[in-house]
Amino acid sequence: MRGKKRSIVCRCEDISEEDVLKAIDEGYTDLEELRKKLRIGMGPCQGRVCIQIVMKILERKTGKKVPKAALQTSRPPLVPVSLGTLAGEGK
Fold this sequence. Notes:
By secondary structure, the chain is mainly alpha-helical. The chain is about 40% helix and about 5% strand.
């Protein structure tokens, strides 16, 4: 994209504002749908920055308020697992 400035929304997944707007135009008008299509919030930062930006873009484009309940929640493991177990100790 020479000469055209690209606004990055999600650095982890290299998603631009144009990518988000294109997905909304394709019919992905729900935060969860956008997240699954573009992998927003699935990188190392887990959406700490990009989810808020995508919510604002979605609200601006659709004219609808995105409920806070639509935000993803962290999913810790059900049972703590030691690093030794993951490394295969105790076999």
